[in-house]
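Milestone 3.1: sequence recovery, worked example.
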C-alpha cells in the first residue's frame, strides 16, 4: 500500500510550473515515504516527456486520459429502476448544492455493484428519457441538439474518471479540485484513508477564466482579456460542472490547505468549510537563489518569467514593453519560459512583437535555467491574469531583484507583506492592475528611474523571503501532517 497517492491534473511530472515545482519539493523532501502519482491529461501521448527526474520513492505512476474512453464492458449487473431514480435525484440535488448521493452514484459506475459503463450509459433509453426530462424542465431557448452534445461532451470525461482504478493508499492528496479532486474522493470511498486537498490556485476561478475565453464556445472576438460576467448557457453549464466537482472535493476532504488568506476566502465562498482549511505558503530553497553573483548591464534588462500561455497574459507584457521602449529605447526584454504549451498563443505573441517592431528588443528564451538571467536582469515583471503564490517572486526577490506584478493571488502580500511584522520590512516591488500595460510600463519606469527606491526594494525582498518563505520550514508542516495520518 502506498503512503501517499498524489492526484495531479496537467502538472507534474510532465509539465513545468509552480505546482510541479512544489510537488517535486514535497516528494524529494520525504524520502522515507512511498508515493504514487495519478497524472490526469486530456489524451494519452506516448511521446510525452518527463520534465522532472522521478524520485526513487515514487513507486506508482499512472496516466488518466480524460478523452480516451473505456469502451469495453465494465458493468457487473443490469441497471434497476432505483438506479435511474438515484441519478435523477442526484442531478436535482445539484441544483440545491446537495451531493449526499455521491457514494450511491459512484457505486453505479465503479466496483462489483456497478451497472453502467460508457457504452450502456450513453445508449440507455432511460438515460435518454432523463435527459429529455431535464431539457424540458430547465431549458427553453436552446436547441436540443446543442443541449445533447454539450451533455455528452461534459459527461464522457466524468465517466472516465468514475471508472478509473486507483491504487490503495493511506492518504489521497489532491493538488486541485476538479477531476483530480473527484478521483481523490473516489479513492477515499473505495479504499478508505484520508483525503487531503491542497489548492494553489482556485480551480473553479481558473476554469471560469478559461471558459470565458474559450473560442469553441465563444461568439465574438476580443483584443484584451476581460472575463465575461454574463456567460452563455453552455459556458455556465461548463462552469457549473467544475463547481460541482469542487464542491464534492471540499465536502469529502478531511483537510484543506491553501497558500494565502485570499484563497481561503474564495474556497469558503465555493462551499468549503472554513474549519477544514489551513494556510501553508510555498517556500523556496534559500541556498539555490541566495547569493547569486549579479552584475549590471549598461542598459535596462527586463524579464518576464513564466510559461507563454494565455493565463500569464504575455501580451500585456509585450504592450508594456512597447511603451517602455518608447522612453528607454535601449532596454531589452526577455520572455523566459516554455513556449510549447499553447503554440497558437505563442505565435500570436510573436506576431504582436513583430507588429510593434520589437524583434530586436524582445527575446523568447524558451525553457532555460532562469538563474542565469537573474544574474543580470534589473526587474522581473508578472502580468498574469491568475496566480496563486508565484515562485518567481520569491526567486527574484531573494536574488535582490524587485518585481512588478499584477494584483492577483498572493502577489500583493508577497511584495508588500501579509501582516504587521512582514509589512515593516517594506515593499519589495510594485503591484499593478490586471491587463493594464500602461500601469505596468509606468511601474517599471519608476523603478528604473529611482535608484534609491530600487535598492530599498531589492534589500526588502531578500529579507522577506529569508524570514517567511524558507522551503524547509514550510514542507516540514506537510511532513508532520502525513506522519500524524499514516
Amino acid at each position: 500500500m502506498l503512503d501517499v497517492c498524489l492526484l495531479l491534473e496537467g502538472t507534474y511530472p510532465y509539465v513545468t510550473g509552480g505546482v510541479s515545482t512544489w510537488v517535486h519539493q514535497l516528494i524529494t523532501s520525504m524520502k522515507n515515504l512511498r508515493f504514487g502519482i495519478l497524472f490526469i491529461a486530456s489524451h494519452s501521448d506516448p511521446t510525452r516527456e518527463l520534465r522532472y527526474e522521478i524520485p526513487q520513492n515514487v513507486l506508482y505512476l499512472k496516466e488518466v486520459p480524460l478523452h480516451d474512453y473505456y469502451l469495453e464492458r465494465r458493468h457487473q449487473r443490469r441497471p434497476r429502476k432505483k438506479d435511474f431514480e438515484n441519478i435523477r435525484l442526484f442531478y436535482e440535488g445539484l441544483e440545491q448544492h446537495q451531493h449526499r448521493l455521491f457514494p450511491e452514484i459512484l457505486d453505479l459506475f465503479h466496483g462489483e455493484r456497478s451497472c453502467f459503463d460508457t457504452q450502456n450509459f450513453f445508449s440507455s433509453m432511460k438515460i435518454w428519457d432523463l435527459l429529455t426530462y431535464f431539457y424540458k424542465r430547465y431549458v427553453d431557448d436552446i436547441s436540443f441538439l446543442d443541449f445533447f452534445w454539450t451533455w455528452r461532451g461534459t459527461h464522457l470525461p466524468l465517466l472516465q474518471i468514475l471508472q478509473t482504478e486507483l491504487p490503495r493508499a493511506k492518504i489521497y492528496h489532491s493538488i486541485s479540485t476538479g477531476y483530480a479532486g473527484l478521483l481523490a474522493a473516489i479513492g477515499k470511498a473505495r479504499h478508505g484513508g484520508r483525503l487531503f486537498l491542497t489548492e494553489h490556485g482556485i480551480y473553479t476561478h481558473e476554469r471560469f477564466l478559461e471558459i470565458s475565453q474559450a473560442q469553441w464556445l465563444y461568439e465574438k472576438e476580443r483584443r484584451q482579456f476581460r472575463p465575461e460576467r454574463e456567460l452563455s448557457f453552455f459556458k455556465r453549464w461548463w462552469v457549473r460542472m467544475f463547481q460541482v466537482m469542487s464542491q464534492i472535493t471540499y465536502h469529502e476532504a478531511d483537510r484543506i490547505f491553501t497558500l494565502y488568506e485570499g484563497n481561503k476566502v474564495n474556497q469558503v465562498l465555493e462551499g468549503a468549510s472554513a474549519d477544514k482549511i489551513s494556510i501553508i505558503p510555498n517556500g523556496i530553497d534559500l541556498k539555490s537563489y541566495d547569493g547569486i553573483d549579479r552584475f549590471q548591464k549598461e542598459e535596462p534588462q527586463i524579464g518576464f518569467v513564466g510559461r507563454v500561455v494565455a493565463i500569464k497574459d504575455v501580451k500585456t507584457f509585450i504592450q508594456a514593453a512597447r511603451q517602455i521602449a518608447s522612453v528607454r529605447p535601449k532596454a531589452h526584454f526577455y520572455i523566459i519560459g516554455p513556449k510549447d504549451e499553447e503554440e497558437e498563443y505563442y505565435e500570436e505573441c510573436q506576431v504582436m512583437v513583430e507588429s510593434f517592431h520589437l524583434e530586436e528588443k524582445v527575446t523568447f528564451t524558451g525553457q532555460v535555467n532562469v538563474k542565469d538571467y537573474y544574474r543580470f536582469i534589473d526587474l522581473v515583471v508578472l502580468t498574469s491574469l491568475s496566480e496563486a503564490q508565484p515562485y518567481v517572486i520569491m526567486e527574484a526577490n531573494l536574488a535582490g531583484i524587485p518585481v512588478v506584478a499584477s494584483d492577483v493571488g498572493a502577489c500583493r502580500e508577497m511584495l508588500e507583506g501579509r501582516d504587521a511584522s512582514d509589512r515593516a520590512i517594506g515593499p519589495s516591488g510594485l503591484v499593478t492592475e490586471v491587463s493594464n500595460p500602461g500601469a505596468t510600463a509606468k511601474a517599471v519606469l519608476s523603478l528604473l528611474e529611482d535608484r534609491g527606491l530600487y535598492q530599498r526594494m531589492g534589500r526588502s525582498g531578500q529579507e522577506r523571503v529569508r524570514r517567511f518563505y524558507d522551503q524547509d520550514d514550510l514542507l516540514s508542516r506537510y511532513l508532520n501532517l502525513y506522519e500524524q495520518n499514516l
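The CA atoms of residues 260 and 279 lie 6 Å apart. The radius of gyration is 24 Å.
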